[in-house]
């Protein structure tokens, strides 16, 4: 297939791996359905069949070529994609892999829950012999060689192709292309289908500058400014080695500079530029000029050099046609350049019309040959022309040149430009930023109308705050009215400058800063190759490339395909820059009714995958051109780091795996057999680029000029743009369905719409066309490009899959097209089965043809929900408080009743507040007598306890008279066993005779302390340490000589026989404790019987 003109850029780029997609081929697509792609990218490893001979590279390339050439999109799902998931739910309530095929595909999912969004599907080649479509889904199956048509296409599957092409099949979209205007290729006899590739070796570009030389250029200073702009292009802009020639024309045409190679030496280039144009223009009137003569001379010059004009570029500088060109004139121009494959870039200088309107002039050559065109408005005061005209012409010529220069990323980049009007202040100051990818050479230039307008002070301050010695670095070139300050190896960061401004009030000083990419060897990086080698990546600067989808705005669909979109691609090499702030400035040419320039319209471009942007995070920022009045407009785009939010997407090691398929599997190398890939990474393209690693982009600033856009007629209001990212979140517990989308505007994606309409139902074909249950009172809460959500509660439809679409309505009642369908499933209230129709394991996450596969987003609670939660929490705390008070009251009463049932004689008197040491050293009360009568002893209850004095009296009452037999007496109880058990308790009492008495009674300090110890009491200390050595008390050391013992008492210091007694090991509750234990020890007084 032969294109009508040579492409401005290559269709295929072979280079280093992509930071996300790795070696897998992918196509950059920025337009809608049917729009051709920008370029196909892959690596040399893809062409090396030795590494993957069974990967079916031919069909994989056919898939990418279909995207690039015919504007179709992939028909497979993407893991973790919020809009195009790997699995989706069907009406049969089963989950199937997302795709399009003529018969069901047999395969197995990867080791995961098939409802989960990260699942992959692995088809089995030997069991899918009958599968013949689609190349956009399963190109690697052995018999797949077709695209899906109307009979095999699944319009309800959540694929990117369905979302952007309105559910049409791939063949339906492709049949609209000129390649198939005579029907499908297979409709006629089979021809040779072997593709033919022509490798074009890069050669020196050939440029011819064609300049109008008539009386219109002789007014004011127009010719002088034109000569300076052309001189700058020849001396400073066109790289050495390229070929350039100059032709001038009035009523005839002549050559002033034959086609010659640009020399390397600056002096030689300056001498070349001096003879390129005459010093004074011709006096031939403008109406007598012959544009065709000038183009014919340029084509002749190109054909003499090499025998062919193909690939040549003509820069046509003219004031334009004095009257609209007839169709006959346009046909002559087309027949001159199109068959010879020559491209023409018109530059209208000067545009003298006060309020220019689109006309059928030489600017039509841009559309015919596939280029841009530029315009410079006439600005003059008396006999002078403003220096702004020269600056605008220089910018236009440089922007036009960059479209054709090879390796434009290595050329100087414009990072700053600023106008400082004269007559305001004596010193003009500003700042600019050099990011880390720049710094090879920075050139700071001042453009003036007259040299006297620039004072002696030119100050440059580097990022460290040091002044640069500009005096010895300054260069003056009066032939282009510029002063240069060149800094080698300029450090990155924020620079500042000050310039003495002496310009007149009607003139200005212009500051321009350009910088080349850093080229130090330390910045070189290496990327591994599949074949074992290394890709050496040269430093790649952050670049901005801006363009528009059309150069003409018209409601006539035969002239334009739809609303014009402005694009700004911010990349570093092949990696996108995400999070940048990209702004477009649209400036109307001419003057308003007051004689002043029109105010520019500035708006932000987005990389969010909504409205005009079809893929998020790919580094291509876009937005629709707003509705404009009839006229001609220049478009500029500026990119900054968005206050440090911009980041570079860098290489992910997982993306460098030998995965060369668009998902699913890689070949094992044996014919007819395939094995699952162990390293399945992201593949192009889905709703977003799934990058995983970034690095700070630093401070960046870039600018680019798009060209001129013509608005042919007064445009009627546009409707809002289409919602492209509708997804649904279901909350089954609350019976709530919440819609999420990015808001369009009132006109396209600008402003704020009036309201929304939505339609839902169970029939997908009817819902897609807007038929079903309709809701028309959905209020608008957010302006264009903002995230919006709307909840429907309660949802009364259960147990089935529902489809839903939405659209915005403008303030004048114009509705937008219906959005792609989203589907969701809400279970019946009694069921707990899964509700996701798109694959999430979390209940409620759903999607549709742009359905939701991401984990459900945490919902923002309404005021009513917050009040309900707070009220429930307060009620719960109140109930806990009431139960606690009730428990305390009941327990207190129960204990009081138990104490009242105990006789006073048996109850324990509360101990006096003396310390343990005081109770030991206190003299014995001699008046203490035993008043109890002899009676049958009553065992202690679990809640009773006796003090030591009472225990001693009870013992004296029950013991036999001294001197009698110590054996047991009938009717008498033996004293308790005080021996050491087999498993001693940690609490042991160390006695004087080395024996231990076990204490199994949970006690509090002082619970067994007697306030009146008897003479027969022995004092023992609780040893809580690891040794048996008695430790001194905290206050008052116990001395055994302080206690007088009778002989009979001394004889009874041995432990009684180990007979059990009713008083043995009675537990005493802690509630009866009156004192506390010290932190380092515990003591208690006991008696030795």
TrEMBL record:
Biased composition regions of type Basic residues, renumbered to the chain: 1080-1089
Low complexity: bias regions: 1045-1057
InterPro entries from the UniProt entry: CLCA_N (IPR013642), CLCR (IPR051266), vWFA_dom_sf (IPR036465)
Signal peptide (from-to): none
Sorted UniProt keywords: Membrane, Transmembrane, Transmembrane helix
Domain Calcium-activated chloride channel N-terminal: from-to ranges: 8-182
Keyword Transmembrane recorded: yes
Region (Disordered): 832-852, 898-970, 1041-1089
Cellular component aspect of the GO annotation: protein-containing complex
Transmembrane regions: 866-889
Lineage top rank: taxon: Eukaryota
UniProt biased composition (Polar residues): 832-844, 1065-1076
One Pfam family of this chain: CLCA
Compositionally biased residues, Basic and acidic residues: 923-938, 952-961
Protein name in the entry: Calcium-activated chloride channel regulator 1
Natural source organism: Hyalella azteca
Lineage, top ranks: Eukaryota, Metazoa, Ecdysozoa, Arthropoda, Crustacea
Gene name tied to this protein: LOC108671337
């Amino acid at each position: 297939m032969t294109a009508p003109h040579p492409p401005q850029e290559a269709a295929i780029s072979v280079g280093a791996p992509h930071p996300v997609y790795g070696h897998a081929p992918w196509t950059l697509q920025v337009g809608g359905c049917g729009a051709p792609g920008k370029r196909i990218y892959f690596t040399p490893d893809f062409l090396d069949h030795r590494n993957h001979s069974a990967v079916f590279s031919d069909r994989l390339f056919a898939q990418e070529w279909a995207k690039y050439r015919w504007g179709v999109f992939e028909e497979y799902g993407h893991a973790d994609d919020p809009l195009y998931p790997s699995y989706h739910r069907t009406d049969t309530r089963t989950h199937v892999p997302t795709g399009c095929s003529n018969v069901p595909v047999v395969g197995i999912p990867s080791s995961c829950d098939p409802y989960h969004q990260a699942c992959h599907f692995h088809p089995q080649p030997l069991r899918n012999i009958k599968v013949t479509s689609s190349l956009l889904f399963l190109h690697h199956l052995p018999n797949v060689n077709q695209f899906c048509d109307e009979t095999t296409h699944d319009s309800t599957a959540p694929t990117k192709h369905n979302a952007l092409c309105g559910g049409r099949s791939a063949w339906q979209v492709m049949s609209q292309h000129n390649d198939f205007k005579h029907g499908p290729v297979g409709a006629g006899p089979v021809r040779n289908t072997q593709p033919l590739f022509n490798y074009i070796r890069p050669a020196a570009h050939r440029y011819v500058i064609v300049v109008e030389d008539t009386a219109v250029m002789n007014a004011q200073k127009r010719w002088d400014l034109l000569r300076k702009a052309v001189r700058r292009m020849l001396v400073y802009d066109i790289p050495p080695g390229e070929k350039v020639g100059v032709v001038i024309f009035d009523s005839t045409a002549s050559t002033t500079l034959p086609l010659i190679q640009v020399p390397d030496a600056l002096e030689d280039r300056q001498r070349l530029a001096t003879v390129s144009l005459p010093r004074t223009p011709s006096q031939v009137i403008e109406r007598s000029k012959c544009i065709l003569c000038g183009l014919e001379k340029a084509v002749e010059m190109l054909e003499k050099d090499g025998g062919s004009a193909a690939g040549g570029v003509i820069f046509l500088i003219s004031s334009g046609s004095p009257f609209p060109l007839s169709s006959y004139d346009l046909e002559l121009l087309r027949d001159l350049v199109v068959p010879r494959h020559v491209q023409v870039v018109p530059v209208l200088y000067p545009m003298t019309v006060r309020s220019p309107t689109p006309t059928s002039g030489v600017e039509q050559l841009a559309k015919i040959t596939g280029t841009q065109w530029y315009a410079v408005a006439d600005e003059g005061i008396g006999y002078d022309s403003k220096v702004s005209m020269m600056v605008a012409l220089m910018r236009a010529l440089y922007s036009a040149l960059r479209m054709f220069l090879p390796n434009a990323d290595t050329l100087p980049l414009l990072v700053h430009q600023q106008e400082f009007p004269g007559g305001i202040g004596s010193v003009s100051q500003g700042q600019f930023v050099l990011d880390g990818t720049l710094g090879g050479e920075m050139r700071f230039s001042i453009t003036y109308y007259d040299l006297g307008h620039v004072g002696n002070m030119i100050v440059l301050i580097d990022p460290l705050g040091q002044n640069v010695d500009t005096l010895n670095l300054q260069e003056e070139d009066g032939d282009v009215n510029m002063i240069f300050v060149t800094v080698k190896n300029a450090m990155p960061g924020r620079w500042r400058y000050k310039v003495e401004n002496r310009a007149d009030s009607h003139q200005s000083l212009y500051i321009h800063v350009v910088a080349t990419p850093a080229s130090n060897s330390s910045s070189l990086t290496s990327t591994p190759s599949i074949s074992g080698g290394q890709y050496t990546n040269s430093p790649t600067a952050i670049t901005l490339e801006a363009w528009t989808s059309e150069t003409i705005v018209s409601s006539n669909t035969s002239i334009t395909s739809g609303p014009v979109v402005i694009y700004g691609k911010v990349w570093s090499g092949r990696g996108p820059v995400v999070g940048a702030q990209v702004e477009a400035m649209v400036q109307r040419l001419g003057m308003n009714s007051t004689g002043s320039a029109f105010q520019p319209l500035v708006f932000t471009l987005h990389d969010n995958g909504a409205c005009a942007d079809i893929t998020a995070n790919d580094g291509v920022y876009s937005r629709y051109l707003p509705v404009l009045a009839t006229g001609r407009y220049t478009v500029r785009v500026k990119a900054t780091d968005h206050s440090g939010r911009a980041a570079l997407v860098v290489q992910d090691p997982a993306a460098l795996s030998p995965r060369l398929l668009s998902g699913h599997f890689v070949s094992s190398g044996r014919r007819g057999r395939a094995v699952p890939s162990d390293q399945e990474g992201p593949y192009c393209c889905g709703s977003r680029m799934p990058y995983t690693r970034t690095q700070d982009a630093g401070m960046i600033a870039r600018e680019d000029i798009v060209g001129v856009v013509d608005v042919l007629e007064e445009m009627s209001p546009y409707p809002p743009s289409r919602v492209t990212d509708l997804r649904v979140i279901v909350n089954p517990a609350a019976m709530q369905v919440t819609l999420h989308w990015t808001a369009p505007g009132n006109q396209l994606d600008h402003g704020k719409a009036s309201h929304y309409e939505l339609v839902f139902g169970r029939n997908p074909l009817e819902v897609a066309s807007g038929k079903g249950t309709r809701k028309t009172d959905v209020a608008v809460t957010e302006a264009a490009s903002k995230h919006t959500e709307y909840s429907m509660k309660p949802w009364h439809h259960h147990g089935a899959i529902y489809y839903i679409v939405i659209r915005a309505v403008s303030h004048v009642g114009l509705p937008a097209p219906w959005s792609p369908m989203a589907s969701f499933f809400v279970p019946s209230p009694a069921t707990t089965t899964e509700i996701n129709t798109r694959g999430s394991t979390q209940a409620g996450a759903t999607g549709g043809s742009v359905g939701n596969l991401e984990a459900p987003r945490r919902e923002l609670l309404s005021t009513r929900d917050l009040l309900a939660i707070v009220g429930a929490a307060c009620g719960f705390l109140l109930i806990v408080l009431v139960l606690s008070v009730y428990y305390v009251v009941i327990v207190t009463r129960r204990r009081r009743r138990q104490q009242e049932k105990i006789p006073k004689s048996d109850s324990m008197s509360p101990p006096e507040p003396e310390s343990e040491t005081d109770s030991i050293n206190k003299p014995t009360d001699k008046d203490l007598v035993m008043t109890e009568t002899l009676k049958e002893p009553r065992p202690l209850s679990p809640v009773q306890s006796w003090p030591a004095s009472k225990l001693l009296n009870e013992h004296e009452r029950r013991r036999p008279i001294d001197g009698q037999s110590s054996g047991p007496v009938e009717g008498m109880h033996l004293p308790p066993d005080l021996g050491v058990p087999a498993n001693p308790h940690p609490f042991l009492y160390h006695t004087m005779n080395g024996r231990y008495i076990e204490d199994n009674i949970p006690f509090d300090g002082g619970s067994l302390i007697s306030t009146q110890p008897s003479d027969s009491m022995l004092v023992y200390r609780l040893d809580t340490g690891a040794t048996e050595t008695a430790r001194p008390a905290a206050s008052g050391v116990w001395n055994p000589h302080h206690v007088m013992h009778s002989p009979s008492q001394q004889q009874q210091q041995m432990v009684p026989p180990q007979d059990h007694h009713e008083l043995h090991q009675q537990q005493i509750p802690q509630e009866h404790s009156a004192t506390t234990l010290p932190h380092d020890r515990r003591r208690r007084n006991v008696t030795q019987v």
